[in-house]
Please model this.
Amino acid sequence: MDCPTLKWGIIGTGQISTAFVTDLVLPRDDKNANHVVQAIGSSSKEKADEFVKKVAPESTATTYGAYDSVYADPAVDIVYIGTPHAFHKEACLAAIAQGKHVLCEKPFTLNRREAVEVFDAARKKGVFVMEALWTRFMPLCQELQKAVHEDKVIGEVNRVFCDFGLHMDLETLPRSSRLKNVALGGGSLLDIGIYSLTWGLLLLDNGIGETAATPQVFSAQSISQKIDIASSMILHYPQTGRQGILTSSMQIKTDPVFARIEGSKGVITIEGPATSVPKKFTVIPRGEDAEKKEYDFSRPGYGFYWEADAVAHDIAAKKTESSRMPWAETLRVMELMDGVRERGGARFPQDDSI
Model:
């Protein structure tokens, strides 16, 4: 279908769901899918009603004060899960059990074991499931990968540096905050470090999932109140000698230039308001007389619609996995983060059964 239609059920009415639905209803000249906000589920019907009034006032979405009602709604094609990390597995399994397709926010689950459980359920049910790592679907990300791996604009890649830091003022947050509550998957790694890790994986190697090269990983975490307030990862690819230095912090905000790719013929910098939201990259060839070239990308709204459009086309094509974010890639990233946490000390109660 040239412009398939998806009817969305939204689970959770917090900040991330607000941004996602705002993009679903945003008028766009470049859209190649139709998105209908069909149902909203929240902890109360009043919250769901307020969400629709604020975010999608022109929609005719049905509002529910329970998530199960969204999963059971026969008009819903796909469920978007925007709840805190610790509730992702439960929500995914409940939606899949009702035969719904699923787009679940990152991190997909708290650990690899939980992700395997979800994918096994999806495989048995024959539904589409994807982790919503929205940055991977942005045109800038895809153009940058082409420039690095296919066009080789800076020659052979040697190193990648990437940081994602936010000043989260943890001392003023209540213990119940998802950012600092260990039972909710709090800490920097799963919340923002996953983006630094993603950029490293995408730029150091052109494989994905089962076709990706396997790096050696060295890491360390700074632990406070049982969560990691900072994580550092070094990826080393023995096959090529390439290295990635990838970091996250809850103590200080990253500068706009958040990543640097060093190659045999030059350097590329990536910048934007956050590591998850790149705005442009700059190619700086080696040599005093070489002219740098900027690649700027416009982004109306937030930029969640690119992944939503891709999901609509995959489902229309009867796929159960995305080629850009396949299940094997989610499992690979989850396994790497499991290792970082095991070495660094950031453990969740849900890890006890691993």
The radius of gyration is 20 Å. The chain has nine helices and 14 strands. The chain has a mean pLDDT of 96.
